[in-house]
Amino acid sequence: AIQILSIHTVLSQSQNNAFLFHKCSDIEGSFTSKSPYESNLNNLFPQLSYKVPSTGFATSSAGITPDNVNGLALCRSDASSSDCSSCLATAIPEIRQRCPSNKAGIIWYDNCLVKYSSTNFFGKIDFENRFYLYNVNNVSDPSTFNTQTKALLTKLTKKATTGDNQKLFATGEKNIGKKKLYGLVQCTRDLKSEACKACL
Q1: Which residue spans of the chain are classified as CATH 3.30.430.20?
Q2: What is the pTM of this model?
Q3: What is the pLDDT of residues 104-114, one digit of tens each?
């Protein structure tokens, strides 16, 4: 699940390839060059690149145990299909470069994320992979800001996880004095709405 807050400034869609963070997992071990796992990984990523831009989300698997690999790609639901494609075209080679022999990894960009693993993680809340973004500017009234932020995120969580919102995505804004607070929440669509709500 993703929660993003921005006060006063919103990133433009032209910054869709802005790198945010990555994590390579050592827990699942590593693979060697030209191994069956690497071959399966090479087959997985084109499948995700092909499937994701039309819907904004896809999961896929390649190979059989013990060399199977599972992958997931998600684009922000307010990103265009071309921005989604562009982000994935940047993210996939970058995760391969940053995690050259890890059997699991995840990479976040402003408009997309890509995750792969040798274990089946579909439909499960990811408690292991997280990172935090901070705004270097301070607010003048932290108590009010925190209260209003919680209220906005609670509202967006409800909007993203109720009704027929199959994208598990919501955006909104709230005035705080003369400034405006912008929020975004999104879950990967392999989660059920109750799991998404719990995660958010």
Answers
A1: 19-117
A2: 0.88
A3: 999 999 999 99
Write out the CATH class of domain 19-117.
alpha beta
Q: What is the DSSP string of the chain?
A: -EEEEEES----GGGTT-EEEEEEEEEEEE--TT-HHHHHHHHHHHHHHHHHHHHSEEEEEES-TTS-EEEEEEE-TTS-HHHHHHHHHHHHHHHHHHSSSEEEEEEEESSEEEEEESS--TTS---S-------SSPPS-HHHHHHHHHHHHHHHHHHHHSTT-TT-EEEEEEEETTEEEEEEEE--TTS-HHHHHHH-
How do residues 142-183 score in pLDDT, each as one tens digit? Answer: 999 999 999 999 999 999 999 888 899 999 999 998 889 999
